[in-house]
From TrEMBL, chain A:
One of its GO terms (molecular function) is hydrolase activity. Residues 20-243 form the Dienelactone hydrolase domain. This is Carboxymethylenebutenolidase. It holds the Pfam family DLH. InterPro entries: AB_hydrolase_fold, Dienelactn_hydro, Dienelactone_hydrolase-like.
TrEMBL record, chain B:
This is Uncharacterized protein. Pfam families: DUF6295 (PF19812). It comes from the Bacteria.
Length: 247, 97
């Protein structure tokens, strides 16, 4: 089987047409294939996120991660960019939605595209993935332990964000939620509230909570990594995208 | 977990970053995942000057014990010097008789 792929930094048009840096990985097959927008976590547009982008390409998807901190810190090291963005209050929701819309349009514009685009995010990106699925026309959303979908950030938080739950009725696509049972942000009761609301609204979703796993259990380079939960979680992700992003 | 809680305030002094010494204007302190320290959570301190760009930053990731010990060391060092010696306004001057 021909399995060559290409990974490179590109420029896309994000919110309000701004030119934003993004990392693209795609199979070199003619397609048609689905696309995945990867939303990076708070620590930024970093090496581990780029690895994830390449992983999607290796599984046959065109994947792209916009650098959400490009405006505050163009060309900066990911950790410096993350510190700058944190001190500035994080990424405004409106801008995030615009950047994800630009990334999705870029994927749909590839000649290999089958027109379908999913989104995935971890941690703060999990909330942003859910938010994107409420505000944009997407085909699948994966929320990996996104906090503040239901609850408001605690006082003193630098994040000037609002809960997303009131937008849930606008959800445009099926949602896969992967959570750690030991996580506090989101805690199991927040996940249960989200589950109840999506059930009430008749939305298509699938949630899995892993015992013995806390926040960031997918992060292979952190002590929070939980191999069993992460391996099974990746299986759920590829099954889900296999169903929702197929031609 | 991500606590997201952040304390931030002005600071006055200098720090040495990847491009050499620079003037510090802002300190940000938060307990969250570190970039480098081999722990799930650390006390993270960014000493920065946002006007000089993202690289004008001295980053620290300390364990709780390390952070508290640092506070004590700073207090002890200040206590061993005459009051005001390291103040931006200079040491207190004796009032002329």
């Amino acid at each position: 089987m021909y399995d060559a792929m290409m990974a490179e930094t590109v420029k896309i048009n994000g919110h309000q047409g701004d030119e934003v840096e993004a990392y693209l990985a795609r199979p070199l097959t003619p397609g048609p294939s689905g696309g995945v927008v990867v939303i990076h976590h708070m620590p930024g547009y970093d090496q581990s996120t780029k690895e994830m982008v390449r992983k999607f390409a290796a599984h046959g998807y065109a994947a792209i991660c916009p650098n959400l901190y490009w405006r505050e810190a163009p060309g900066a090291a990911p950790d410096d960019a993350a510190a700058t963005a944190r001190a500035a209050g994080g990424v405004p929701d409106e801008r995030l939605i615009g950047d994800v819309a630009g990334a999705a349009a870029y994927l749909r514009g590839l000649t290999s595209s089958n027109g379908k685009v999913g989104v995935i995010g971890h941690c703060s990106g999990g909330r942003q993935a859910f938010l994107s699925a409420c505000e944009l026309d997407l085909d699948a959303a994966v929320d990996c332990y996104g906090a503040f979908v239901v609850n408001t950030p605690p006082e003193g938080s630098p994040l000037k964000v609002r809960p997303v739950l009131p937008l849930a009725e606008k959800l445009s696509c099926p949602v896969l939620g992967l959570f750690g049972a030991d996580d506090q942000f989101p805690a199991p009761d927040e996940v249960a509230t989200l589950e109840a609301e999506l059930t009430k609204l008749g939305k298509e979703f699938e949630f899995h909570s892993y015992e013995g796993a806390g926040h960031a259990f997918f992060a292979v380079d952190r002590p929070s990594y939980r191999p069993a939960a992460a391996v099974e979680g990746w299986q759920r992700i590829f099954e889900f995208y296999g169903r929702t992003l197929a031609a | 977990m991500c606590t997201y809680l952040t304390q931030s305030g002005p600071i006055d002094g200098s720090g040495k970053g990847p491009n050499g010494w620079f003037t510090l204007t802002q300190a940000t302190v938060y307990v969250d995942h570190p970039q480098h320290a081999p722990y799930e959570h650390t006390v993270n301190i960014d000493l920065a000057n946002p006007k000089l760009g993202p690289a004008a930053r001295v980053g620290l990731e300390l364990t709780e014990e390390g952070a508290l010990a640092l506070i004590e060391s700073i207090r002890a060092a200040l206590a061993s010097a005459p009051p005001g010696l390291a103040s931006a306004n200079g040491p207190a001057r004796p009032v002329a008789a």
